[in-house]
Amino acid sequence: MLNINFVPDDYVQSNESRRTNWMCLILFAVVMVGLGGSFVTIKIRQRGCRAKEELVNARMAQIQEAIKQFEELQTKRKTMMKAALTTAELLEPVPRSILLASFTNNLPPGVSLLKLTLIQKEPAQSGQSAGGPTNKYQAAQAEKAAAAAQPKMSREKLLETYMEISGMAPSDLQVAAYIERLSNSSLLDNVALVESKEYKIEDTTFRQFKLTAMLKADVHLTKEDIGTIKMCAEKSVYNF
To answer: What per-residue confidence (pLDDT) applies to 211?
Structure first.
């Protein structure tokens, strides 16, 4: 039996065209949604990257500020160290290592040092004599005249260096020899014995002594003097 189609061909073609248009519209919508989603995702990622960039820039600014402060502290530290070294040179006309070397060079055989103490203080004011001023006004006038007569010097230059030396010796003869050597030193003055007492180590008897001395005023050592003192100190260490 034959199938007879009573639907016009124009109607069939229009339906197929309509279906094709709907498929194109749906595909276009899907593509646009995909593009919109990609655009939104890219914008979100850009915003996140921008926020991270701002955070990194802020961190870099903090680090640069910290580095700048550290450099300023290093500069101040160098300036303070330079000032400290200059002050030390003013306060110590003779380096302590040279003083220690001088004490070591003058050690008699068998004598050893136990302790060396350096004290710097202002010179004591001389007392008034019997024929001096009798009232406060005259005393003030005398001090003003003395100050005017003396050349102006810094307070550091006026400091006096006192030393206390402790050591061990076989007998008082070595102690006396040590005092004589220190008295003949070009660096020291007013070398005096404070005490000397007997001290036993097992069956051996020693003399434990304590001396005081003062650094001479206006001592100036040349490089040759310092080199000679250091060389003698090295030899004395090797001999010891």
So the answer is: 92
